[in-house]
Write a structure and sequence with these properties.
The chain is of the alpha/beta class and 394 residues long. The chain is built from 15 helices and 13 strands. The strands form 3 sheets. It has an 8-stranded parallel β-barrel with strand order 2-5-7-8-9-10-11-12. Strands 1-13 form a two-stranded parallel ribbon. It has a two-stranded antiparallel sheet with strand order 3-4.
């Protein structure tokens, strides 16, 4: 950030926090003040507005710079060694997953009338295939995460599109750049799979595919809907072309989602030969309604409750769960309780993926050591085997 950008950023902060300063000088709390503070908090955490504010460190304070990736990975590797290691799977180092294709700044985030924007808000998105190749070839990552959306207005559209936020399909039509982006096969799930297999799958690399749930697929454990089934059908069509690689035993594909309804539908509607070689992972939502509301400013996020807990216990085919320590309190005790119940029912224990980027590295590591080294978890340990990173090219 140059001097001009810093001055502009400071001016923005002074403008935003001026009402708080006035409130301190004249201490009177009213509904207007509360509304302002809530909106300010949402703005600071949402990362959804094309302004300097969206690049505040609190959006992803634990992200690693590309120039410091090796050193950063080593720091996190140390969680699994030393006098008080975190419980983990089979003594191996954790799996390194690059969030948003390992391209924090370049990943396609939002559809606007000016094109598909990235976190460099004046910068148009490149292509997803190129980001994947860079992540695997240059960043020493074992896997990458990406988001896929179905065209909810044009069901005959065969593609699933790689984009973070749910698109407004009417807005997309108004932008030549957006149409061009989506017309590029390198930004579709089908096109990305074509480049992933067999080159990267043969190297043991993996894809974590977040299934973004449209409004019709957000009922916790609810019955399948036509739109949910349509997503499953498109996934099956894209994966079928690579059946032999998927059945190789390396489990190169994992489907992840906040939506239990969508995971149920996709699992039940994929051919058995495919689904038995694919991992299914629930992204754990906050148990606090307020935290879930804040997270939903960036896209739909449900509130975690008893229904989701029972769902995690009952689904024998579920292989893991991802969570954020900043969003979910008491998770180690929760997952240990669920795993004990699963083991007693003859199901496998759920492995755990942890998002590292929502906390500074020191706080993250301190919390991991404090929360995951308790002896009573040995009976049914949650196997922490995956850490998800944001990697920043700046």
């Amino acid at each position: 950030m140059n001097l001009r950008e810093k001055n502009s950023f400071r001016s923005s902060l002074r403008f935003l926090f001026a009402p708080i300063q006035r409130h301190v000088q004249t201490p009177r709390f009213n509904r207007t003040s509360l509304t302002y503070y809530l909106l300010l908090l949402a703005a600071l955490t949402a990362g959804c507005s094309p302004s300097e504010l969206c690049s505040l460190p609190m959006e992803s304070p634990g992200r690693l710079k590309t120039s410091e990736v090796s050193e950063g990975f080593k720091k996190y590797d140390d969680i699994f060694s030393g006098e008080k290691p975190v419980l983990y799977c089979e003594g191996k180092r954790h799996e390194r997953v690059g969030h948003v294709l390992g391209a924090y700044q370049e990943y396609p985030m939002k559809a606007t009338r000016r094109g598909i924007k990235t976190r460099k808000y004046n910068h148009l998105a490149g292509n997803a295939v190129g980001m994947m190749k860079n992540a695997f070839d240059n960043l020493d990552l074992d896997a990458v995460e990406l988001d896929v959306h179905v065209n909810t207005q044009k069901h005959e559209d065969e593609n699933l599109y790689i984009l973070h936020y749910e698109p407004d399909w009417d807005t997309l039509k108004q932008s030549q750049d957006s149409v061009k982006f989506l017309s590029d096969e390198r930004n579709t799930f089908r096109g990305l799979l074509r480049e992933f297999f067999p080159t990267y799958s043969a190297q043991g690399k993996r894809l974590y595919v977040e299934l973004k749930a449209p409004a019709d697929c957000r009922m916790n454990g609810g019955p399948s809907t036509p739109l949910c089934k349509l997503i499953a059908k498109k996934l099956a069509s894209d994966l079928e072309k690579h059946r032999n690689y998927i059945q190789s035993g390396n489990r190169p594909i994992a489907f992840i989602s906040f939506s239990t309804q969508l995971l149920d539908t996709v699992h039940d509607n994929l051919p058995k030969e495919l689904r038995s070689n694919i991992d299914f992972i629930l992204i754990l939502s906050p148990s606090s309604r307020f935290k879930a509301w804040i997270a939903s400013r960036r896209g739909w996020v449900p509130t975690f409750g008893e229904a989701a807990k029972h769902w995690m216990t009952d689904r024998a085919w579920l292989t893991g769960v991802w969570y954020s320590p900043r969003a979910t309190n008491g998770f180690p005790d929760l997952i240990s309780e669920i795993n004990l119940a699963r083991v007693s029912s003859g199901h496998r224990r759920l492995s755990v993926g942890v998002s590292a980027y929502l906390q500074g590295s020191n706080n993250f590591i301190k919390g991991m050591r404090a929360n995951w080294s308790h002896p009573r978890k040995i009976d049914a340990p949650a196997l922490v085997q995956t850490i998800i990173y944001d990697i920043d090219s700046r």
